[in-house]
């Protein structure tokens, strides 16, 4: 099952051309470039639990999520005021289903635990020394248990993202006593308590409890659990004071409450939604560490790559803040550039050091498919890959990735691809084989329309001395003459709304979607009246949906993944 | 008698297990002596839970197991020697191993097929390389890897190191499959640590090198232990309130905390010096430099007894470290070259990979290990996730083993085992390492014949 949405097994594009394929990858085209988009939302039996009749809706459950590296660093920053990014040296979290916040796949090895323990020792010492001491410790350590209790009610509650239970409080007092017995000073007692908070499972994981872990009856999340879902969705960090207050006073009980909080969080400059979500969705997270062949692409460097990535972030931010219609993701006539990027794109110069919003007057840029980050991430280090770009559009925007090449197809050697006079001629030869043509008709038409962008997204009129011909026909017969036409044609595709919603929901929940999520996705993605759907509309729909607000247990025998 | 769930798919010769445990009980004191002397760290030997009681088996100086992975297969024509038996001539790609040829086994004909399903992709090939299990997808489902079976037998921590965290995901496969050969259980990948500085710290974690007074040290250790006891208790309490899937996550946590606790409790003065090696930086090396540093650290870890089980990933499956191999004057990425089966370039790359293995093995061969060399008292395995970069097949894989596990494993030959399961090689290797398994993975049903001495 390759589709992001399990119920959309075969896409319209591919049915039209009778595209079939083998189950597995022996092909060049199937290995993603670094940070490739992967397959968001592939059905995951682990989180599903139980067979659900088509059309039946139930909110499912989310596997216990460990903080990923980004979330750990952000949480430590907000909790202790320490912005040293200690998780940078941790073992890299693996991205799965396109995102790195999937509870099923965030595993925990002994080495990682050791890294948490070492980080906790360092963090506790830094947090309780000047200048952070006054921020983090509101009592006199010499007062013993009294100070421990105060610390638990303040720091403890924020670390656990909820008030501690009586049992937990007394366990900490027992720890304090043990440290004293071992000869520990009052200072060492506080240090040990903070260390314990920082390696506690209630800190490293985000537990959500079911009244009955084996009951399949859905129930609303507890208010503090709900607050964490919201804050990790938008901040990739712990709840802020207002969210804590809302949880405490029962102001997260209704869908409207959640939507109001979402609007507030998205408007906060601390929002990391674009970075956390869009960079992974579009596979541009590591574009600044891309290493295109320096002989072929001397213009590329990390600074340029970073500017390209920031462009995507700010572009998506505007869609969130202004609730812009999602079809404009492909057709927008604005973007964000700095001096380097403006020059690179051949746009009028901008002033200032940061990226600035510009209105685009050129037909060469506009929308995601004209952005350096996306174009670089879908290229090889030494050439463009129209196939990868075509596949990216079908996969990331339509949730209809073509299947991998069948096992018996001989993929042409790299030398042959590089030696071809033009990508167009080469791919035409490829499509002469009906087995290849089945899928490549769709991918190639999209990719070839983008051939005016080289492997690092710079505009070019010719490739190897041959004028580029970006024209072609999409499988539905639409004629395109270049990137602008292509964007306009693709923007009309009704699958984009469904696909975006699926990806957003996958990310918001931290789990892959299942058949039983389909009705929710369709409802959220459905256009209400004549108003076009905006990106924020989708998010608002998601936080108000049952899967975001509810969960259930699982049968005792269901072993998850 | 509750069996360790992670060991599903591996079966043991129960009679031999029982006799090993009897022997271990008899030699109880010598085990403690070994531990005290070596400063080694002890986990929770699974054999105890298997047998209900009694001390786990541990020889005085158990052999080491080191498994290497190099990406994108090998160029068969330059890889396999053209002659068989003990007098074979080394092939072009294996020439760097000339100095240790007598301690090398070159295998031909082995398949890593799971019940005749060809793995056929980089990701499934990597995750299946040491597990001999075909991974499921899209959800993660693997099997325990051979290094982890041995680490559990020893009850000591294992080490996973690598060069890069760039992962390339095959369609539908969890990306982790391309970047992880070590699996503690079907659902717990053990990813490699790739920062040399972090690896260095890991080696000396068990050794307290601070200048604190011994009273300070003892107090610090007692406090750390209290903290860990505290979170163990909390996690156990939390676990009781969770459903089956979440409980498994907390299991991983509990295993990790116990492992750290064991390390802290067994902290002693360092048992070896850093051999003149200073702590390296975490990043900023070119590929060959980082490879050399990582190999040096692996040798150091073995010398310092900080582990006896290591897996090393010299790149991830389908790795394309573009611009690929500038120090070999090869442009074009490795994955692309493998797809084109570019003979001269692939031979050069394979030879470079083998020369790194030779550097490692020759270093081990220069270290005395109780009357033999450290290489003699090890098994060093090397393979890739696939063989041929076009077909992505698992047939006739390039597989090397060096060392004799202290005289228990035959070497010095090029041998054809036509269509034999690679998993049977692991049964033979585990038997040589004194782990009495009878099956391994899906296809391993008997030791590959003629190897156990």
Write a structural description.
Chain A has a two-stranded antiparallel sheet with strand order 1-2. In chain A, strands 3-10 form a two-stranded antiparallel ribbon. A two-stranded antiparallel sheet of chain A has the order 4-5. Chain A is elongated. In chain A, a hairpin with a 5-residue loop joins strand 8 and strand 9. The N terminus of chain A is likely disordered. Chain A starts with 11 loop residues before the first helix and ends in a 10-residue tail after the last strand. Chain A has 561 residues and is mainly α. In chain A, 47% of the residues lie in helices and 4% in strands. The longest helix of chain A is centred in the middle third of the chain and has 21 residues. In chain A, helix 6 packs parallel to helix 8 and helix 13 crosses helix 14. In chain B, a hairpin with a 2-residue loop joins strand 8 and strand 9. About 8% of the residues of chain B have low confidence. Chain B has 453 residues and is of the alpha/beta class. A 7-stranded mixed sheet of chain B has the order 4-7-2-10-11-3-12, with helices on both faces. Chain B has a two-stranded antiparallel sheet with strand order 1-13. The longest helix of chain B has 26 residues. At the A-B interface, helix 4, helix 7, helix 8, helix 9 and helix 19 of A face helix 5, strand 6, helix 7, helix 8 and helix 9 of B.
What is the strand and helix layout of this fold?
The complex is a heterodimer of chains A (561) and B (453).
Chain A: H1 12-16, H2 45-48, E1 65-66, H3 69-80, H4 110-127, H5 133-136, H6 145-160, H7 166-181, H8 186-199, H9 201-204, E2 205-206, E3 219-220, H10 223-234, H11 241-248, H12 255-267, H13 273-281, H14 302-322, H15 328-331, E4 334-337, H16 339-345, E5 356-359, H17 372-377, H18 386-397, H19 414-419, H20 423-432, H21 434-448, E6 462-463, E7 466-467, E8 472-473, E9 479-480, H22 483-491, H23 495-509, H24 518-525, H25 535-543, H26 546-549, E10 550-551
Antiparallel strand pairs in A: 1-2, 3-10, 4-5, 6-7, 8-9
Helix pairs in contact in A: 4-8, 6-7, 6-8, 7-8, 10-11, 12-25, 13-14, 18-21, 20-21, 23-24, 23-25, 24-25
Chain B: E1 11-12, H1 14-26, H2 28-38, H3 46-51, E2 64-69, H4 76-79, E3 104-108, H5 122-129, H6 146-154, E4 159-162, E5 182-185, E6 188-190, H7 196-204, H8 214-239, H9 244-265, H10 287-303, E7 309-313, H11 334-340, H12 343-365, E8 368-369, E9 372-373, E10 378-383, E11 399-402, E12 413-416, H13 422-432, E13 437-439
Parallel strand pairs in B: 2-7, 2-10, 3-12, 4-7
Antiparallel strand pairs in B: 1-13, 3-11, 5-6, 8-9, 10-11
């Amino acid at each position: 099952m390759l589709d992001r949405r399990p119920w959309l097994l075969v896409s319209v594009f591919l049915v039209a051309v009778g595209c079939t394929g083998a189950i597995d990858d022996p092909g060049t085209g199937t290995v993603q470039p670094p940070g490739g988009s992967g397959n968001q939302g592939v059905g995951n039996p682990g989180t599903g639990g139980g067979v659900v009749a088509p059309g039946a809706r139930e909110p499912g459950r989310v596997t216990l999520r460990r903080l990923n590296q980004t979330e750990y660093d952000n949480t430590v920053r907000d909790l202790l005021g320490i912005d040293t990014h200690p998780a940078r040296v941790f073992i890299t979290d693996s991205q799965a289903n396109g995102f790195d916040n999937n509870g099923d796949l965030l595993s925990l090895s002994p080495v990682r635990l050791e890294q948490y323990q070492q980080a906790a020792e360092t963090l506790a010492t830094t947090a309780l020394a000047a200048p952070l001491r006054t921020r983090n410790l509101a009592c006199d350590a010499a007062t013993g248990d009294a100070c421990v209790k105060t610390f638990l009610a303040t720091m403890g509650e924020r670390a656990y993202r909820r008030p501690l239970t009586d049992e937990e409080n007394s366990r900490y007092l027992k720890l304090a006593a043990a440290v004293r017995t071992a000869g520990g000073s009052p200072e060492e007692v506080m240090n040990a308590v903070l260390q314990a908070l920082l390696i506690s499972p209630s800190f490293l994981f985000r537990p959500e409890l079911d009244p009955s872990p084996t009951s399949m009856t859905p129930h609303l999340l507890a208010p503090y659990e709900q607050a964490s879902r919201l804050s990790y969705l938008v901040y990739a960090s712990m709840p802020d004071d207002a969210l804590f207050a809302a949880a405490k006073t029962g102001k997260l009980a209704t869908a409207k409450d959640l939507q109001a909080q979402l609007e507030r969080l998205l408007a906060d400059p601390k929002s990391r939604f674009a970075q956390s979500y869009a960079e992974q969705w579009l596979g541009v997270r590591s574009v600044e560490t891309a290493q295109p062949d320096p002989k072929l692409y001397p213009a590329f460097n990390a600074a340029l790559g970073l500017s390209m990535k920031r462009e995507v972030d700010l572009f998506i931010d505007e869609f969130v803040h202004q609730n812009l219609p999602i079809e404009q993701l492909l057709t927008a006539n604005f973007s964000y550039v700095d001096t380097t990027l403006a020059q690179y794109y051949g746009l009028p110069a901008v002033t200032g050091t940061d990226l600035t919003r510009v209105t685009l007057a050129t037909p060469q840029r506009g929308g995601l498919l004209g952005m350096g980050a996306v174009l670089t991430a879908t290229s090889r280090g030494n050439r463009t890959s129209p196939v990868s770009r075509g596949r990216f559009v079908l996969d990331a925007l339509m949730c209809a990735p073509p299947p991998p090449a069948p096992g018996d197809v001989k993929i042409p050697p790299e030398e042959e691809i590089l030696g071809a006079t033009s990508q167009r001629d080469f791919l035409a030869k490829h499509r002469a084989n009906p087995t290849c043509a089945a899928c490549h008709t769709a991918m190639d038409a999209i990719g070839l329309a983008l051939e005016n962008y080289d492997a690092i997204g710079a505009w070019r009129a010719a490739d190897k001395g041959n004028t580029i011909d970006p024209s072609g026909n999409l499988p539905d017969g639409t004629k395109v003459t270049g990137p602008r036409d292509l964007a306009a044609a693709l923007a009309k595709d009704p699958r984009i709304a469904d696909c975006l919603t699926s990806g957003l929901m996958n990310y918001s929940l931290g789990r892959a979607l299942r058949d039983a999520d389909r009705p929710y996705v369709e409802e959220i993605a459905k256009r209400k009246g004549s108003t076009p759907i905006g990106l924020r509309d989708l998010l608002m729909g998601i936080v108000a949906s049952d899967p975001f607000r509810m969960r259930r247990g699982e049968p005792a025998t269901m072993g998850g993944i | 008698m509750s069996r360790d769930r992670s060991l599903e798919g591996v079966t043991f010769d129960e009679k031999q297990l029982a006799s090993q445990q009897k022997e271990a009980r008899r030699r109880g004191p010598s085990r403690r002596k070994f531990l005290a002397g070596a400063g080694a760290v002890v986990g929770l030997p699974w054999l105890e839970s298997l047998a209900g009681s009694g001390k786990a088996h541990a020889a005085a100086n158990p052999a080491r197991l080191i498994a290497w992975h190099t990406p994108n297969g090998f160029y068969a024509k330059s890889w396999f020697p053209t002659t068989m038996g003990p007098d074979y001539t080394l092939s072009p790609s294996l020439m760097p191993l000339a100095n240790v040829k007598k301690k090398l086994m070159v295998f031909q004909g082995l398949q890593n097929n799971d019940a005749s399903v060809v793995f056929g992709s980089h990701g499934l090939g990597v995750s299946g390389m040491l597990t001999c299990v075909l991974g499921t997808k899209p959800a993660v489902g693997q099997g325990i890897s051979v290094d982890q079976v041995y680490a559990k037998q020893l009850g000591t921590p294992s080490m996973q190191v690598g060069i890069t965290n760039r992962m390339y995901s095959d369609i539908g496969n969890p990306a982790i499959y391309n970047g992880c050969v070590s699996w503690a259980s079907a659902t717990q990948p053990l990813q490699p640590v790739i920062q040399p500085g972090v690896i260095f710290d890991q080696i000396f974690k068990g050794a307290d090198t601070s200048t604190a007074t011994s009273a300070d040290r003892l107090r610090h250790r007692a406090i750390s232990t209290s903290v860990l006891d505290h979170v163990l208790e909390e996690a156990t309490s939390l676990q009781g309130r969770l459903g089956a899937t979440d409980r498994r996550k907390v299991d991983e946590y509990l295993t990790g905390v116990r492992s750290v606790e064991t390390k802290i409790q067994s902290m002693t003065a360092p048992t070896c010096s850093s051999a003149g090696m200073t702590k390296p930086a975490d990043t900023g090396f070119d590929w060959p430099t980082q490879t050399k540093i990582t190999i040096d650290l692996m040798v150091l870890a073995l010398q310092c007894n900080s582990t006896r089980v290591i897996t090393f990933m010299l790149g991830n499956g389908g790795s394309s470290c573009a611009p690929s191999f500038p120090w070999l004057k090869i442009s074009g990425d490795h994955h692309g070259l493998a797809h084109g089966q570019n003979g001269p370039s692939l031979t050069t790359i394979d030879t470079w990979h083998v020369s790194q293995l030779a550097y490692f093995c020759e270093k081990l061969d220069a270290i005395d290990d109780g009357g033999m060399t450290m290489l003699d008292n090890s098994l060093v395995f090397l393979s890739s996730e696939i063989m041929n970069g076009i077909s992505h097949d698992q047939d006739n894989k390039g597989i090397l083993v060096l060392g004799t596990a202290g005289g228990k494993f035959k070497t010095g030959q090029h041998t054809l085992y036509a269509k034999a399961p690679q998993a049977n090689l692991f049964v033979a290797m585990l038997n040589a390492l004194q782990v009495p398994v009878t099956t391994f993975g899906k296809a391993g049903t008997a030791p590959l014949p003629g190897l156990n001495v």
